[in-house]
Structure formats: structure tokens, C-alpha cells
């Protein structure tokens, strides 16, 4: 938001400020969608292979003088794997993927020697869930909606 707009809105009373925010699309009426997640990895090659076992297909990228990294895109969402900087610990996020048939995927993953399965498939409310751990220690949730 521009400095001029901020000053103008500050001069208004609370009621008018809410109206102005609604008018210019700021606040509760703003529509947001997550479109990017960057994972910092100890070894992006090992982490890339892990996520490829889940069915993701990465493209190698390099922007200007930045580091070589990998990107996967699906429906406007981009997942990027970047190398962690020297001395930097990998991030600690939990990431989830939805699949129409978890049984097929989990069957393949159980036979992979480099796959760390934290929890075998289990049911919660409206979905079937399996919990993995990626090479950097992140929890990775695979889920399938249950239609009752």
C-alpha cells in the first residue's frame, strides 16, 4: 500500500477506514492463494529423488547468479527445492499432498529402501493419511479423501 494511501486512511475514522479497505480490496475481502513453497535442503539431489518417488517431476532452474535449484508446478502452485546455505539448517515445515488412491502410492513406497515411513495409512475423519519424513526431516503427509 502506498504511503499516501496509508496517511489518507489513517485520517479517516474506523468505520470509513474499513469501507475504504473494502473498496480498494485490502483486508478480509482480499482473495489469496498459496502459489509458492521453497524448501531449503541439505542435498537437493537426494530430496529431489524423494519427491520424485511421490510422482512429482522437477525442472532444473537457475535465475541469474542464484543457485541451481529444482521446481515442480501443478495448477499454479510451485514447489522449489533450493540448497541450504552453508551452516543453514533445512527449514522445518510440514507439507501435504492429496492423491485419489493412496493405496497404490503407499504400496510402491513401502518397497523403497530409502523411504522413511513415519505412519502407515490411517483414517481420520474424512480422509486416509500416511505420514513420511523427507531426507531433511520434514514431515510429508499423503492423504486421500474418503467419500462416505
Strand-and-helix sequence, N→C?
A: HHEHEEEEHEEE
Question: How many beta-strand elements?
Answer: 8
**Average predicted confidence as pLDDT:** 82
From the 3D structure, determine the CATH topology of the largest domain: 2,3-Dihydroxybiphenyl 1,2-Dioxygenase, domain 1
Distance between the termini: 46 Å
Specify Rg, calculated over alpha carbons: 21 Å
Q: Any guess at the CATH architecture of the largest domain?
A: Roll
Describe this structure in words.
The protein has four helices and eight strands. By secondary structure, it is of the alpha/beta class. The protein folds into two domains: 1-30, no CATH class; 36-145, 2,3-Dihydroxybiphenyl 1,2-Dioxygenase, domain 1, CATH 3.10.180. A hairpin with a 5-residue loop joins strand 7 (127-133) and strand 8 (139-145). The N and C termini lie far apart (46 Å). It has helices spanning 3-11, 14-24, 44-53, 102-110; strands at residues 36-41, 59-61, 69-74, 77-83, 94-98, 116-124, 127-133, 139-145. Helices cover 26% and strands 34% of the residues. Strands 1-4-3-2 form a four-stranded mixed sheet, with helices on one face. Residues 1-5 have low confidence and may be disordered.
Amino acid at each position: 500500500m502506498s504511503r499516501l494511501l496509508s496517511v489518507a486512511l489513517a485520517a479517516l475514522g474506523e468505520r470509513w477506514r474499513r469501507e475504504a479497505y473494502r473498496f480498494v480490496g485490502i483486508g478480509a475481502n482480499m482473495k489469496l492463494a498459496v502459489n509458492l513453497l521453497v524448501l531449503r535442503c541439505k542435498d537437493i539431489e537426494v530430496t529431489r529423488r524423494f519427491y520424485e518417488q511421490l510422482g512429482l517431476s522437477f525442472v532444473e532452474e537457475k535465475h541469474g547468479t542464484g543457485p541451481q535449484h529444482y521446481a515442480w508446478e501443478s495448477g499454479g502452485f510451485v514447489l522449489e527445492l533450493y540448497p541450504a546455505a552453508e551452516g543453514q539448517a533445512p527449514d522445518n515445515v510440514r507439507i501435504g499432498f492429496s492423491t485419489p488412491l493412496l493405496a497404490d502410492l503407499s504400496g510402491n513406497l513401502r518397497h523403497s529402501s530409502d523411504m522413511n515411513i513415519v505412519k502407515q495409512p490411517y483414517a481420520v475423519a474424512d480422509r486416509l493419511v500416511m505420514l513420511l519424513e523427507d531426507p531433511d526431516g520434514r514431515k510429508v503427509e499423503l492423504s486421500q479423501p474418503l467419500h462416505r
